[in-house]
Write a structure and sequence with these properties.
- Helices cover 69% and strands 0% of the residues.
- It is mainly alpha-helical.
- α6 runs antiparallel to α7, α6 packs parallel to α8 and α7 packs antiparallel against α8.
- The radius of gyration is 18 Å and the shape is elongated.
- The model has no long low-confidence stretch (mean pLDDT 83).
């Protein structure tokens, strides 16, 4: 019989030590988040951090060239120009959404891929609703609400990542489902504080 409480204690101890490991693209996203916490951050330094992940710059350039950002504008061809066109908040949200999407596609997580895709879809829905509600009903910047919606289930992604290699805990088992459902909020809070 699997001792889920021992797993919870192990994961809690890891987070308490600051041992929160995510793949490199997610780590780049957290570096972006940290950099944006610096009131003196400039576009050039943020662009350098964005460029530290090989796929994210291409995604941001594509997003900056989307029709929503003005078809009359000259095409963006570099990361710094993409960051300038999108703005810091949009870069933050796009980076996090990209990291979540990449997590759902990793080979190491094939056992939990279906669950990860469901969490990703839910996070995107919540982010979209938060953006609209912030825009229409509050004075909260909509991009901040969007980011909050995207990160609200980071604890689920952490647990899925940690449990992906546990062959003694099948993803469709009641124990697996209960562990993620019961603990994702607490772990999400710990992770966000840690990062």
């Amino acid at each position: 019989m699997l001792d889920t409480f021992s797993l919870v204690k192990e994961f809690t101890a890891d987070i308490s030590r600051g041992d929160v490991s995510f793949p490199t693209f997610a780590a780049a996203t957290f570096r972006i988040q940290e950099a944006l916490g610096d009131p003196d951050i400039d576009v050039g330094r943020l662009a350098t951090i964005v460029a530290s992940e090989p796929l994210l710059p291409a995604r941001l350039i594509k997003l900056a060239n989307a029709p929503i950002h003005g078809t009359g504008n000259a095409p963006v061809t570099d990361v710094k120009a993409a960051v300038m066109r999108l703005g810091f908040s949009a870069v933050q949200a796009a980076a996090y959404a990209f990291a979540l999407e990449q997590l759902t596609q990793m080979k190491e997580y094939v056992r939990v891929a279906r669950h990860a895709r469901l969490v990703l879809a839910h996070s995107i829905d919540v982010a979209a609703l938060a953006h609209v509600m912030a825009h229409r009903l509050t004075r909260i910047p909509p991009e901040q609400a969007l980011f909050a919606g995207l990160v609200h289930d980071i604890g689920s992604f952490y647990l899925l990542a940690r449990l992906a290699s546990r062959v003694d805990l099948p993803p469709d088992s009641p124990e697996f489902q209960a562990l993620v459902a019961d603990w994702h909020t607490a772990f999400g809070h710990q992770i966000l504080v840690s990062l």
